[in-house]
Structure prediction request, 117 residues.
Amino acid sequence: QITLKELGGGVAQAGGSLRLTCEASGVNRCQYEMSWYRQVPGKEREFVSGIDSDDTITYAESVKGRFTISQVKNTLYLQMDSLKPDDTAMYYCKSTRGGVCDELDFWGQGTQVTVSS
Prediction:
């Protein structure tokens, strides 16, 4: 099975930038859709951005124009610009397996992003 590990979280000033990385390890024999989610204490985990199996990219309205998602082989990136305090959250990488394989979601452990005002 694959494992996911998020890197690049940290502290940034409002208006600053951070770049998150999701490293996928293991043998990938199936089709995977990669995406980013985030969660703050007491709230539900929410979708941030994703790349579909046909390479279609989507963004949550709250991050549109500020965040950029990209993928190179088994590494997923999230470039975050013009950060706001409301972006503070634990960011998770998600991989959804499909195609000819059984559908299954994989999650990373998360990386904390804190944006100060």
Notes: The mean pLDDT is 94. The first strand starts at residue 3 and ends at 7. DSSP finds no helices and eleven strands in the chain.
